[in-house]
User: What shape does this take?
Amino acid sequence: MARSGKLKGTLRRGLLLAMAAGTLGGCTAAGAAETSYITVAAAQPRQEGENAAVAAQLSGADTLPARFNPQSKWDWMDGSFELDITTEGAPREGVVFTADLLLRSDGKPQFQGRMNVETILLVGEGKRWAQCAMPAQLRASNFTEPVMRDGAAWYRARVAITFSGTVNTDVNGVWTNGVAFGQVVNQPVTGIKVFVAGTQCSYQGQVRLENASLGYTMGSGDGVSVSTTVPRHSQTALAAAGDVLTFESGARQALPQVKLADAKATAATVRTARYLAAMGSSDHVIFGHQDSVWSKAGTAASPLNGLSCSDIEDMTGSPAGVVGFDGLSLAGKEFSAALWNSSFAQQGLPSIDIAALGEPAANVKALAYLSNYCLSRGALVTLSCHMPNFSQAGVRAAYQAGKEPAYARYDFTTSTARDKGGNPMQGILPGGAYNAQFTAYLDMVADYASQVNGPILFRPFHEGTGSWFWWGTSTCDAATYQKVFRYTVEYLRDKRQVHNLLYVYSPDGNPGFFTEAQKRYPGDAYVDVIGYDNYQTDPSPDSSKWFADFSSGLSQLRKFAVQHGKVLAVTETGVNTSSPALGDVVTGLPRTGCADRQWFEKLLDAAASSGASYVLVWSNNSEMFHTPFVRAVNGDGSLYGHEMLDDFLRFYNDRRSVFALDQLDVVRGIQSGLK
Assistant: This one.
């Protein structure tokens, strides 16, 4: 093995693009990262002699120094490990690179952050790069085995990376993500490069690579994933006939009458509100998940592994009962028309003519198509809006007046909801300096809603009782917040004549939130659903104190909702971590070492008895996730993946949890316009 030069620029560009895009799962598209976890399903050769023809055990070892910057999110180690190899023919999809990574240490390594091990296959005589889109990720806890090398003490971790689905590569001089494996790896592999990067990693010392191999045998696994022991049970569907909702037990719940903010709301919108109100009066709760059908943390789907484009569906066989999207996708910052065309449209769904529509309108259509896809599968849809600071909204140079809708004039990607300068809340009201930009954004929401074949739970200005968004307490008083919320409803409902929205007001659940939540409440004429956003940070093995506080806040909102005749929902929740040492990023579940392994079961206990109609946890992607995920399906049908899989399966198996397939007939009835 020889040390190579510092190939930082091109490689880093490809990695950052892959990570920013997230994982699209079975809907993997160009620009989307395809998770490179080990897949047990591909562990054995698929035909006699195949492994012998491709496998290569690489002798020797090499050592490089590492001096990672603990403040950096992505800091390359100087140099790379370069392995000489020539396979007999082109490897097939599912080929696995395994190696031992050793750290020089006289005691068990105690560094903070993580190391990312990136592997590139060099293909053919031209040594074209085929980069696995997500690196193997190692923490200090992975280096558990002490070994001696040349009289020195080292600690070893096993790395296993599967090349499956797509890779990143150079296409005509442009670094491109999401290219099909077989299009790139179509000649013998003539070398392998291994790079190591630190993410807020404090390790300083020697790194050694040895015992590398390429083949279809997994090796010892990643030391993190587990197999499930809880079988998945199917659930009986709910049914709604007339004014009665019938549960699987035979219990019946009346669909109460509701008074909505929109007196002209469509029959389907009214029916949805009544269904949610009935759920809130029962001991059942609908499970929701943000971005659930297109962004995932688990292994991307392929015809070989039996997985889907959804972590929830991988675990349960059903989509989430509520699927959340955000206005960021309307602007093309999360989902987009390009992703739709390269993923869902490849499965027989309509494609979008981006050139004819223009990119802004095409992105809006893509999210409408995705919402309709969810509704057709039994999921309700909710739209939050991390709106840009409209004082910083730019004008698109490519805008084509007369061809594109008026909202396409503005670039809504130039700022974020956390940019708080410029006094935007006053400025977006009628007569304000930014009213044109704001109403253009609302026109974009209206265009989206007009293309969705069902109701949308619309949740603008969420967590306004906190201080982190430009509509929060640090930049906006209660009276202004109320004015803006009311103006938003009036503009969509009265001026744009949008009648398939249910308006959701969702304060944050930080301590003492309720007083501010009451002050900022826009009024009964502008709200249909009272929401509750509350995350647990750094759970302990006993989360009883947090769940008691969670339930107390929810109880306050329940009384408020009942007094005002509104539906109640947990509109955001999940586990957060406060430092990279406790998880892979500063939000989401840790990849391993979760303190409370019954967290989802406890959430169900709290939510099902609270009067909440649904509970939604935040999104998953390759770098951050709020639910467990599946890496592979074992031969016996059990699942292999995140350590909290069993907890989530118990959550799913409980009769009180409701997923999309449980309510499929109800949602289809709503869409058909039943009154």
